[in-house]
Design goal:
This protein has helices at 10-19, 56-66, 70-76, and strands at residues 23-27, 32-37, 42-47. With 77 residues, the protein is of the alpha+beta class. A three-stranded antiparallel β-sheet has the order 1-2-3.
């Protein structure tokens, strides 16, 4: 059986996004934020719940938006 998908909070995900060249573009509805990278126009939606741990499914969706693997995320984290 493989390793479980990583868990993270907003601050860890935001830190990884910044390292990848993303920046906070705008505040969306509620606690959602739109992050953008101008080099390729990629956009990701992050959920800002502070230090509260995000669900694994949410982290997976964010990593898909950022275009990175869980392994790469753990390296950036």
């Amino acid at each position: 059986m493989g390793q479980r998908f990583p868990t993270a909070n907003y601050w860890q995900v935001a830190k990884a996004a910044r390292k990848l060249g993303f920046y906070l573009c705008r505040q969306a509805k509620g606690s959602h934020e739109i992050w953008r990278r101008d080099s390729d126009g990629r956009q990701a939606t992050l959920v800002n719940h502070g230090s509260k741990e995000l669900k694994r499914k949410t982290v997976k969706a964010i990593l898909d938006d950022l275009g990175i693997t869980p392994k790469k995320f753990l390296e950036l984290k």
